[in-house]
Design a protein that fits this description.
The chain has 111 residues and is mainly β. Helix content is 0%, strand content 50%. The protein has one domain: Thrombin, subunit H (Beta Barrel), CATH 2.40.10.270. It has a six-stranded antiparallel barrel with strand order 1-4-7-11-9-8. A hairpin with a 5-residue loop joins β5 and β6.
């Protein structure tokens, strides 16, 4: 069994969906219904990147065999909400090596 199939964490992914806002514009937002996935979540760097002022940006890499990720998806893991930084990266190799990875950025402050 691959490390991709035996992740040590679970996460709830709210896949991106297309809807219409109050003004009639077509927009993309996270779904209201989550999909639970098995994954690995690893620190992206050894230190958090400093942002203007005294805030820090917490970033992690999520790696899973398969997940309904998209640029507008939302992820809930480790007791907090995360946004994706950009598009997920799909590795479409063999059946044994295919996987998806995404950079997660924490929403809001520490819990």
């Amino acid at each position: 069994m691959s490390l991709l199939d035996s992740g040590n964490e679970t996460a709830d992914v709210y896949p991106q969906v297309t809807t219409t806002d109050d003004d009639g514009n077509v927009i993309t937002v996270p779904s209201d219904t989550p999909v639970t996935i098995i994954c690995r979540i690893q620190p992206l760097t050894s230190a958090e990147a400093a942002v203007t002022g005294q805030m820090t940006t917490t970033t992690y890499r999520l790696i899973a065999r398969d997940a309904p990720l998209g640029a507008w998806a939302k992820v809930t893991a480790r007791g907090r909400d995360w946004d994706l930084q950009g598009e997920p990266q799909w590795s479409r190799g063999s059946r044994r090596t295919r996987h998806v990875s995404a950079i997660l950025q924490a929403r809001g402050g520490e819990p």
